[in-house]
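hiii so um. not sure if this is the right channel but i have a protein structure encoded as tokens and i wanna go backwards to a sequence. like what aa goes where. can anyone help
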């Protein structure tokens, strides 16, 4: 479903650009098409810039984690480049390009479950999936649908994928989850406390909510508000021994989850990624290395 929506957005932008070029040609205004593309890119870059500025205001002036302007600019430029690759190409057009991989010789080799975040699909993980297949790792990447469902509604999807991996390998899998996907994984674990899981690696997950929570459509968006009852109930049913199996990556330049330390959890192994924005954190080498290390453990 989400792939179709994002495909319509991508094709709509492409169609409008084509119309601008045709009109420019007929009116002898050759710059019109290029100008339209420039306006779209500038608007997108400006929207991201507002997010980064807003994020920086969440820090106290004397906070040592407060990003420097140079770090903000680096993170902003990185997200300007990464966003279109994900939302205008991989997710709308390539979400089924990399199939799940459960080889015949999977037994005895730990597998990996990949869970995306809000307004994303499994195409987010395509660069991972190619590397995992080359490495001979069993993996499943799921789509969290319906897009606007409550977060706990995804537990059945996660449970089915976890059981498939465990059945194929005979070993509890590692779960890597980005953004809202980390909350979905925790909700699954709360509903299935004996569910097979070796390690949960969350990346830019709003464990304590985000100031952007509630600014969007869907029950899941409201659940990610800072101080939401849903987040409080989720945390209340997590014993310390469960948290000790979590690795939480957070970044001081996260333009979606802020205050940025809300991506950490007490009792978890919290790891910081410097000058890395929200979506780009998925592709940080340290995150992939952590997943591969846990698979080999």
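sure thing!! here u go:
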């Amino acid at each position: 479903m989400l792939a179709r929506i994002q495909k319509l957005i991508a094709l709509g932008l492409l169609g409008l650009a084509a119309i601008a070029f045709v009109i420019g040609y007929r009116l002898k205004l050759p710059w019109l098409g290029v100008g339209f593309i420039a306006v779209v890119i500038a608007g997108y870059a400006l929207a991201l810039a507002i997010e980064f500025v807003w994020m920086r205001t969440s820090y106290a002036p004397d906070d040592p984690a407060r990003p420097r302007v140079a770090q903000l600019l680096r993170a902003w430029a990185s997200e300007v480049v990464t966003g279109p690759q994900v939302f205008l190409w991989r997710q709308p057009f390539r979400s089924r390009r990399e199939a799940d991989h459960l080889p015949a010789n999977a037994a005895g080799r730990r597998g990996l479950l990949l869970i995306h975040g809000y307004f994303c699909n499994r195409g987010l993980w395509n660069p991972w999936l190619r590397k995992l297949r080359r490495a001979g790792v069993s993996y499943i990447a799921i789509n969290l649908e319906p897009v606007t469902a409550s977060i706990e509604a995804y537990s059945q999807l996660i449970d089915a994928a976890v059981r498939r991996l465990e059945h194929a390998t005979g070993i509890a899998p590692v779960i890597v989850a980005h953004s809202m996907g980390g909350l979905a994984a925790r909700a699954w674990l709360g509903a299935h406390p004996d569910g097979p899981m070796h390690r949960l690696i969350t990346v830019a997950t709003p464990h304590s909510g985000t100031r952007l929570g509630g600014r969007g459509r869907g029950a899941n968006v409201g659940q990610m508000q800072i101080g939401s009852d849903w987040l409080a109930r989720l945390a209340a049913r997590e014993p310390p021994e469960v948290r000790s199996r979590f690795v939480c990556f957070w970044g001081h330049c996260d333009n979606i989850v802020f205050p940025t330390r809300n991506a950490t959890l007490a009792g978890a192994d919290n790891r910081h990624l410097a000058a890395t924005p929200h979506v780009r954190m998925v592709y940080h080498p340290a995150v992939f290395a952590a997943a591969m290390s846990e698979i080999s453990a």
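oh and Residues 31-56 form the longest helix (26 residues).
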